Amino acid sequence: MAKSAPAEYVSRPFLGLPGEPGWVAMREIVPAAIGSARTVAAHGGKDVKIVTVLPGGFVALHRPDGEVLLSVQDTMASDDLSRDLAAALLQALDAEPGTPIASIAAAPGSPRLQDVLDLSASFTPEITNDYDFWIDSGAERTAELESSLAEAAEASTPTEAVPGVEWAYWCEMGKPFMRWIRPEDEDDLIKAMARLAAKRELALELADGGEGRFLGMFRAAGLVVPVWELPDGTVASDLTVPVQALDKRLAAALAVSGPLDAVERRAREGIVSRQITLR
């Protein structure tokens, strides 16, 4: 019998879902967050809580009170994260209340999140500074439980959404940084960034005269995430006006057609060479 061809790797698993950058943020960037989704009628029309991570490495959980949680960050088995997450969600929906889902095995051709979730509903994760979403509403909050929650929160990278800007996240890793998930086509975005870099307009101009320096970028679930290194003491609220201004400059640069000039091409080469890891 001939062996079946391996499944093709899906580099952008959340493409087509409302709020794709929010899914990417929960998978790759934000330590603790929750979001809401709903399954289509064919899969019960059920409300589902999407979370970054669950205790014990569970991929999903059907709580005793009937609430269903799906974890985005736990490792999945196949080359299509969306299919794996859908398989975990469907297992949890079918499970008895009180059942955790420890692992999944998504079959080739099985539904993806894009098939299971209502695509008319918006999706915006809410960042939390704790892991209280792990706890069933009826659970007793023992000293041991409180200690575990505090330990998990302490181990997390402090992260906040930049107010007034979609998909931009301040974090503190010894010093502050901003990571900004961009939904545009990678080549288009890099060209636009190169146009700004050539004019020295890619930095964040802070109100106190300081500057957020463009550091580089990485890819997360198929989207480009540029990163800026910020002066010590910079907080998320300091970034709203500078990032909104940069967003306008990027939008204008994205609207420019035609090839890059020599200076812009050199700037593009510099941007492409600055691949970083910042997790």
Structural summary, described in words:
The protein has about 280 residues and is α+β, with helices and mostly antiparallel strands. The chain has 2 domains: about 20-155, no CATH class; about 160-275, no CATH class. About 30% of the residues lie in helices and about 20% in strands. It has 7 helices and 12 strands. The strands form 2 sheets. The protein has a 6-stranded mixed beta sheet, with helices on one face. Helix 5 (about 185-200) packs across helix 6 (about 240-255) and helix 5 (about 185-200) crosses helix 7 (about 260-275).
Name its key features:
alpha+beta, globular, six-stranded mixed sheet, six-stranded antiparallel sheet, 279 residues
Please describe the topology of this protein.
Layout: H1 20-28, E1 33-38, E2 47-51, E3 60-62, E4 68-71, H2 81-94, E5 99-101, H3 113-116, E6 126-127, H4 143-154, E7 159-161, E8 168-172, E9 176-180, H5 186-198, E10 204-205, E11 211-220, E12 223-229, H6 240-254, H7 262-273
